[in-house]
Specification:
Blueprint: H1 3-21, E1 26-28, E2 46-49, E3 62-66, E4 72-80, H2 84-100, E5 116-129, E6 133-144, E7 152-162, H3 167-195
Parallel strand pairs: 1-4, 2-5
Antiparallel strand pairs: 3-4, 5-6, 6-7
Length: about 200
C-alpha cells in the first residue's frame, strides 16, 4: 500500500473509531501562533529547509504517547493536521524565518546571487508524555550552498520541555521544543555568516 493511501486509511479508521466511541476527533499543529513565516523586504540571504525525517514509531496520523518502559499508546481521537514530517518542517521553517528575518525558498528559486543556507534535520527522537514532558533529539546540518563542504556543519541538539496535564499543554510543549531546536539552528547560521568555515555548533 502506498504511503499516502496508507495514511488516508489510518486517518479514516481513526475517525470511524472515534465516531463509534462518541468522542470527537481533534486536530493539532506544531506551528506556533506567534511564528511569522512571511518575510518582507530585501533579505541578505535565504534558507532552504529540507523535508524532515521523523522516527517511524511516531510517523502516523495520530498522536503517539510514550508510556512506561517500552510501551507507546496511539491516541485515536487526537490527530496531526498534516503528516508529522510536514508539521515539523513547517514549524522549524516558520521559527527560522521569524528569528533570522529571511525567507524559506525551499519551494521556489531564490534570486540570482542570493546566498542560500540549506537546513537538513533528522529528528531521531520525539517522545511525548502526557502531563510530563516532550523530548526532542535531532541531528541536523546547515550547509552554505555557495561554499559547499567548507561551510557545512552537522550538530546534535537534545531538548526536553516539561508540560502540564492535558493535550493542549502537550502540544504547546512540542511547539516550544521545536522553537528551541530552531534557535540552535539559527545560531549556527549566524555563525556561518560571520565566521565561515571557523563556525562551530552551538553549546
Amino acid at each position: 500500500m502506498r504511503p499516502m493511501i496508507r495514511a488516508a486509511a489510518f486517518a479514516l479508521a481513526a475517525v470511524l473509531l472515534a465516531a463509534c466511541s462518541g468522542e470527537a476527533v481533534r486536530y493539532y499543529t506544531l506551528l506556533r501562533p506567534s511564528a511569522t513565516p512571511i518575510v518582507a523586504g530585501q533579505a541578505a540571504f535565504a534558507l532552504d529547509v529540507q523535508p524532515v525525517r521523523v522516527p517511524a514509531t511516531v510517523n502516523v496520523p495520530e498522536l503517539v504517547l510514550r508510556q512506561s518502559g517500552g510501551e507507546v499508546a496511539v491516541v485515536e481521537t487526537r490527530m496531526w493536521a498534516a503528516p508529522l514530517p510536514d508539521e515539523v518542517r513547517g514549524a522549524l521553517a516558520a521559527e527560522l524565518t521569524d528569528r533570522l528575518g529571511v525567507p524559506d525558498v525551499s519551494m521556489v528559486s531564490p534570486p540570482p546571487g542570493l546566498p542560500v543556507y540549506r537546513v537538513l534535520v533528522d529528528l531521531q527522537r520525539f517522545d511525548a508524555r502526557l502531563g510530563s514532558g516532550v523530548r526532542i533529539d535531532a541531528v541536523w546540518t546547515v550547509l552554505d550552498t555557495a561554499a559547499g563542504v567548507k561551510a557545512r556543519r552537522t550538530c546534535v541538539s537534545s531538548v526536553t520541555t516539561p508540560v502540564a496535564p492535558g493535550y493542549d499543554a502537550l502540544i504547546g510543549g512540542a511547539q516550544d521544543g521545536l522553537a528551541r531546536l530552531a534557535a540552535d539552528i539559527a545560531t549556527l547560521v549566524g555563525s556561518l555568516r560571520q565566521a565561515g568555515d571557523a563556525a562551530r555548533c552551538p553549546g
